[in-house]
Amino acid sequence: MNIVLWIVQGLLAAVFLMAGGMKAAQSKAQIKEKAGDALAWTDDFSELQVTGIGILELLAAFGLILPMLTGILPFLTPLAAVGLILTMIGAAFIHIRRADGFQPVMINVVLLALALFVVIGRFNLFG
Fold this sequence. Notes:
- By secondary structure, this protein is an all-alpha fold.
- Helix content is 79%, strand content 0%.
């Protein structure tokens, strides 16, 4: 089970390193130019808010890996996953409100489910 958890943590970390890095390092105009309609939701947020979301996603990505890898405060790993669950709930509601369609919401649901798996596995809730 530990190997599967590491794989899921790695996948989630990779996704949120890329997504968060893009949001944290680029302006809204650059993001929209590269991603087009996929990130049209940025129109509803200020430049600072988009950057903040990116920074939080980056922190969560590091939090999924580093605490468990170093053995320093490993309880932070499932807490980072909880943060991603909350982020994905918010993202899904934004996509639903904007009527962005089925696909963005399903991506949020899949990422949420993977983060939930990490929470359950790392808090040893499988029993």
